[in-house]
Amino acid sequence: MPQAKIPVLRETRPKMKTSRKIIWILVLLFIVLLAVLFFRSSLSRITEINFKGSLFTSQEELLKQSGLHVGGQFFGASPEEVKKRLKEIKSIESVTVDKQFPGIVSINIKEYDTVAYEVGTDGNLIAILSNGTSVGVSSSGIAVEKPILTNWKPDDPYKAKLCKILSNIPGEWTADISEIIPDPTPSFPDRIRMYTRSQFEVLTSVSLLSEKISYLNQVLETEQPGLVSMFEADTYVAFKPEEEGGSVENDTTQ
User: Fold this and answer.
1) Omega before 102 cis (within 30°)?
2) CA triplet 133, 134, 139: central angle to 5 degrees?
3) Closest CA to 67 of 87, 43, 93
């Protein structure tokens, strides 16, 4: 009698690929849910904005120019964009932006150095920066050792050159200069006349100032008040006391 063949049962294998897909989908959905919750929470928001180093621009103006605001997206605030926007302010030389999680943005500002002052038409003091920019200044921000520029036209090209030169001269060498006035001649269109706090009068030119300033300081330290001329040759003539008619006391040439 023939034996009946029993069919071989196939092994039941778990559908691993399908299970893994479901797990990955659930993980992704969980991550998306967490991201949505995070970005809608206060942890993703700017909670504090600090500006440091600004003398000529108010906190309100800096905040408006930066484009930042408390409650804005912390991770959406681009440091490079903030730097670019703030450097559009003419008094600002450089900016660094430091983001500290959670929510704190610290901005350090370096402004151009003040090299001189002017008195505005309204009588208020104006600071002249090393890049030639003029900005209003409060009495608390005045550096008394800086000279005052008098009778300069706003568009005078020698004014901008003078500011650049002053920024490269050590502050202790210009601390005694109280006033600088344009005094051009056909031979020296950039000639200037300077007065010092120690009662000297100085004639030189914008282009020669950085070269001659060391000689001026030697005279200021060793001689009595007088007239100093610094051109091709350097001369010093002491002032005679007024009661003697203003004639010169001596004349030296370097």
Assistant:
1) yes
2) 135
3) 87
Contact between 219 and 211 under an 8 Å Cβ cutoff? The reply is no
Q: What is the 3-state secondary structure (H, E, C) of the chain?
A: CCCCCCCCCCCCCCCHHHHHHHHHHHHHHHHHHHHHHHHCCHHHECCEEEEECCCCCCHHHHHHHHCCCCCCECCCCCHHHHHHHHCCCCCEEEEEEEEECCCEEEEEEEECCEEEEEECCCCCEEEEECCCCEEECCHHHCCCCCCEECCCCCCCHHHHHHHHHHHCCCHHHHCCEEEEEECCCCCCCCEEEEEECCCCEEEEEHHHHHHHHHHHHHHHHHCCCEEEEECCCEEEEECCCHHHCCCCCCEEEC
Strand partners, 45: 73
> What are the pLDDT digits (tens) for 85-97?
999 999 999 999 9
Q: What is the pLDDT of residues 2-42, one digit of tens each?
A: 555 555 555 555 556 677 777 777 778 777 776 666 566 66
CB 245 within 8 A of CB 233: no
d(CA 58, CA 39): 31
Residue 71: left if φ>0, alpha if ψ -120 to 50, beta else—which one? left
Tell me the pTM: 0.71
Which is nearest to 135 in space by CA: 152, 148, 118?
Answer: 118
Residue type, 44: S
Cβ atoms of 174 and 202 closer than 8 Å: no
In whole angstroms, give the CA distance from residue 67 to residue 139: 29
